Amino acid sequence: GEDVEQSLFLSVREGDSSVINCTYTDSSSTYLYWYKQEPGAGLQLLTYIFSNMDMKQDQRLTVLLNKKDKHLSLRIADTQTGDSAIYFCAERGRTGSARQLTFGSGTQLTVLP
Amino acid sequence: DAGVIQSPRHEVTEMGQEVTLRCKPISGHNSLFWYRQTMMRGLELLIYFNNNVPIDDSGMPEDRFSAKMPNASFSTLKIQPSEPRDSAVYFCASSLEQIGRNEQFFGPGTRLTVL
Asked: Would you call B48 and A100 a contact, using CB atoms and an 8 Å cutoff?
């Protein structure tokens, strides 16, 4: 079945850029998503990218998609302590049920002062 | 809109007891998802409904788990009997299925502890 992989941990200093990476296996993915989970809360959609796009920018967030390598990244510019959270990559493909998302394991981002 | 509402937020129970988790999706959404999150297995999809009908329950761990959606504004996830290994955070999410990105909106979760 489809698989989405992420590294588990990332630490950066406040003010630096963070880059969270994700790889996926479903070549028929239509939309790819980044969700943020703060402690004790549910997942919140941060941004998404359609599979025919290479890049999407939204304020401090930049999403890069390399469809050939099935690689997705999320760059957070000027990382702040409030960005500390778990970030989940997710993909929705055409195979199987179109309504399902496949989530990665999440990357715990720690922002150091 | 209040978003997806889940209750209770926290549940502590003893092994063997019945547990019922509740979810109210966002009004107008036609799909509802139940997830379980643990440190060991991450986020797992248990079951999802479309227009109140269960579409895929292949993620339900075993017969002790059951889910219902009697109407468009309410769903339950029941565990009977509960076991310590069921301890996890259970999330409900809803979405409006249409052509497009179909964003899933998550509730705050129910933290279940089975002693």
From this structure: yes
Mean pLDDT taken over chain A = 90
Inter-chain touch B97–A45, beta carbons under 8 Å: no
Classified as helix, coil or strand, A82 is helix
Nearest to A32 by CA among A20, A23, A44, A42: A23
Residues of A in contact with B97 (CB under 8 A): 99
Q: What pLDDT is stored for residue B100 in this prediction?
A: 67
Q: What is the pLDDT of residues A45-87, one digit of tens each?
A: 999 998 888 999 999 999 999 999 999 999 999 999 999 999 9
Task: Identify any residues that bridge with A111 across adjacent strands, giving them in sequence order.
Answer: A12
The answer to whether the peptide bond before residue B8 is cis (omega within 30 degrees of 0) is: yes
Q: Which tokens in the block code for residue B42?
A: 């991450």
